[in-house]
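A protein record pairs a chain with a discrete description of its three-dimensional fold. The following entry can be read in just this way.
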Amino acid sequence: MIGEVFDRAYSLASVTSAPLTDVQTITVPPGGASVVDLKLDVPGKYMLVDHALSRVARGLAGTMIVSGPQNVAEYKDYDPARSAMVMGH
């Protein structure tokens, strides 16, 4: 998930094993599975990808849509004009 940290990640989906904590990426082997827990503070669309980002153009990506109240505190120092310049818009 781009831009997020997993609170807990269970390798091979073994929820009875001790989880990894506070990690940004996990390995999911071919034919394998993983379970992750995370708390999202801001509603929006979150993109799910593997690290072979070239595969996104071929459709290997997912989107998780999160709803809920806006968390204004998360945007306290947000400047839309500055962000648009950084992103090239």
